[in-house]
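stage 2 :: seqdesign
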């Protein structure tokens, strides 16, 4: 009852409707992983966020009179241990290849250098990480949306 056959006679499940609550990094990556796992099938993915924009704690504020002036309101830099970076290598490689992440060559006040780790910065602002994954997933979040 919940399935149909395509032209080749293969049984396909009924399209899924998936709701992800929150458009921060976890919501953005989850939407991408869902889209990749489901392939080109006609499943609906929706992201709800109560805030006025995406990114959650990974947001970038821009000067309205000069958008090239920006400030990251969340992470100033991202530090990944060798273990973590190797476990999530696919994501780091993708972000570096797209120019979203670059290795941090300097130092920052209060920065704790950890052995066996690499720090990264985001040339387009830390919100670019979330925006990159949202774009790759093809999902446009519904902002200012409260679950009731």
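stage 2 :: out
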């Amino acid at each position: 009852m919940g399935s149909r056959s395509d032209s080749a006679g293969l049984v396909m499940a009924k399209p899924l409707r998936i709701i992800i609550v929150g458009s921060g990094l976890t919501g953005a990556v989850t939407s991408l992983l869902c889209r990749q796992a489901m392939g080109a099938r006609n499943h609906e993915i929706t992201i709800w966020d109560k805030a006025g924009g995406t990114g959650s704690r990974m947001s970038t504020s821009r000067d309205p009179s000069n958008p090239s002036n920006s400030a990251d309101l969340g992470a100033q830099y991202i530090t990944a241990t060798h273990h973590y970076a190797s476990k999530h290598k696919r994501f780091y490689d993708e972000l570096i290849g797209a120019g979203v992440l670059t290795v941090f060559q300097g130092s920052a006040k209060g920065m704790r250098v950890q052995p066996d780790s690499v720090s990264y910065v985001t040339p387009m602002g830390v919100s670019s990480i979330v925006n990159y994954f949202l774009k790759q997933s093809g999902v446009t979040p519904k902002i200012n949306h409260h679950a009731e």
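stage 3 :: structure notes
- Helices lie at 25-38, 82-87, 89-97, 127-137.
- The longest helix spans residues 25-38.
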